[in-house]
């Protein structure tokens, strides 16, 4: 309703007189603006182990690591974008499958035998925990050189 007086008369039944009640209602109805001070964040330890003492420390840490903070709205937007990308990918794969069907495996195809170097790498690692990729490549190169 655009007329505040008509709205007031529809909602309220004043006992102190219409004019005085309306003036009082207008004063209370005015939007009161006051500054809002956001409190500082509580100190915590980041996942990297760094102690963060407050908001400025957190912003400096984000800046130094080249990362940015996401809120719930950002996450919802990214999730929606990801879901749309998945639907688009599925559609493209269906189109590609129709246009280029899978080829059959030729009769002459057989299993690939392991090389002797690969067998030696497996023997070397038997009973031990799986090494990281760099160590595994180093071991494979050493066994290939021993050939």
Characterization of this structure:
The chain is mainly α and 147 residues long. The chain has 4 domains: 34 residues, no CATH class; 33 residues, no CATH class; 30 residues; 31 residues, no CATH class. It contains 6 helices and 2 strands. Strands 1-2 form a two-stranded antiparallel ribbon. A hairpin with a 5-residue loop joins strand 1 and strand 2. Helix 5 packs across helix 6. The longest helix is centred in the middle third of the chain and has 28 residues. The protein starts with a helix and ends with a helix. The model has no long low-confidence stretch (mean pLDDT 82).
- Tell me the β content: under 5%
Number of helices: 6
Largest beta-sheet characterization = 2 strands, antiparallel
The coarse silhouette is elongated
Estimate the helix proportion, in percent: 55-70%
Low-confidence stretches: none
Secondary structure: elements and pairs:
Blueprint: H1 4-11, H2 18-29, E1 44-45, E2 51-52, H3 55-65, H4 72-99, H5 116-125, H6 133-146
Antiparallel strand pairs: 1-2
Helix pairs in contact: 5-6
Notable traits:
two-stranded antiparallel sheet; 147 residues; 4 domains; mainly alpha; 3% strand; 6 helices
Compact description:
By secondary structure, the protein is mainly α. The chain has four domains: 1-34, no CATH class; 37-69, no CATH class; 71-100; 116-146, no CATH class. The chain contains six helices and two strands.
């Amino acid at each position: 309703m655009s007329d505040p007086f008509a709205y007031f008369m529809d909602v309220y039944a004043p006992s102190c007189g219409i004019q005085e009640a309306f003036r009082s209602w207008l004063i209370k109805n005015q939007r009161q603006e006051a500054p809002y001070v956001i409190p500082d964040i509580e100190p915590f330890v980041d996942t990297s182990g760094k102690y963060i003492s407050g908001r400025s420390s957190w912003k400096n840490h984000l800046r130094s690591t080249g990362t940015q903070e996401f809120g719930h709205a950002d996450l919802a937007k990214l999730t929606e974008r990801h879901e749309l990308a998945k639907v688009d990918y599925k559609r493209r794969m269906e189109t590609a499958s129709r246009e280029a069907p899978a080829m059959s495996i030729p009769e002459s195809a057989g299993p690939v035998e392991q090389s002797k170097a690969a067998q030696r790498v497996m023997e070397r690692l038997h009973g031990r925990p799986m090494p990281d990729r760099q160590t595994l490549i180093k071991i494979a190169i050493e066994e290939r050189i021993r050939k």
